Description:
Layout: H1 2-36, E1 40-41, E2 53-54, H2 58-71, H3 81-100, H4 105-117, H5 141-161, H6 168-186, H7 190-210, H8 220-239, H9 256-263, H10 265-280, H11 293-299, H12 304-329, H13 331-352, H14 356-376, H15 387-399
Antiparallel strand pairs: 1-2
Amino acid sequence: xxxxxxxxxxxxxxxxxxxxxxxxxxxxxxxxxxxxxxxxxxxxxxxxxxxxxxxxxxxxxxxxxxxxxxxxxxxxxxxxxxxxxxxxxxxxxxxxxxxxxxxxxxxxxxxxxxxxxxxxxxxxxxxxxxxxxxxxxxxxxxxxxxxxxxxxxxxxxxxxxxxxxxxxxxxxxxxxxxxxxxxxxxxxxxxxxxxxxxxxxxxxxxxxxxxxxxxxxxxxxxxxxxxxxxxxxxxxxxxxxxxxxxxxxxxxxxxxxxxxxxxxxxxxxxxxxxxxxxxxxxxxxxxxxxxxxxxxxxxxxxxxxxxxxxxxxxxxxxxxxxxxxxxxxxxxxxxxxxxxxxxxxxxxxxxxxxxxxxxxxxxxxxxxxxxxxxxxxxxxxxxxxxxxxxxxxxxxxxxxxxxxx
Length: 405
């Protein structure tokens, strides 16, 4: 048994090196072909880059993932490889079509439903029970199906939406895949661990070209949809675990959904925040804007590399804090701690946001604060509300770094 485990770990190391080198070899050639046939992505009004850049880095991801699944099919104890390959292929062609020519949100969503619908035949990739989380146990089959589809669609699109600046999607993908991989390693689920290792290897290799000024290439929808799908499948596999295997990761079965939410906190936070802002402004959910967290960071003056690394560190920090919180304090205290962390995230991105709508909100808050403190000092009169006093008050706020006014 020990020898087999050591052999599997040895092959995982070879897998990392092999996929890393394969992606490194493929990307410049894909870039060259894309430029030769004018398969490029011209910058748009919302784009955070300048110049013409090829967008087909996801082709290398598809090749790497396909090879991984074939090589490790013998340890696929859930027999999901055929369905997973078919689903990946459908998602690959949806992304490829979108990179060639924009696909409408409805058409893309229908294609995604077909792709992930094929996976729903496997109970291992569906949520069939909450195992006591929030007091809920077995789910009705229809609820199980709809909830699983909703979560997968949400994860795929959430990951797709964070692919807005150089390195963001890759670094978040590395953090998430590494975290999931550590869970699968402790659970001795080596097939899914191999998929995680493959993801980390290709994303590390991709970063070299994504950050390059002379050999730049984007993963495009081809890549982000594929990576989002795979991360979604890995998440669903962990959500479908029974009671027995979970003891290996030192947390209870009912605490796994909270841990997975923390691992996926950045994509989940970004898509939730953007949808809330759009609905608050009476805009369609699919309307494009510059309200994503990467836009906020870039507009605040950070470079692509600094913005991507900052978000990656935030993601890693939240995962680390929440894992030990769940392990040592339990479910309810950890939910409270997560609430505090999310509140800090909301505050942080509100403070640094330079969008016009946010500035208007800040001005209103500033006025309310001014009147509130004037009332506390019992000095409400015409003189105290004078413009000069408001200016002095604003300067004090700026000096103590409240709201950065």
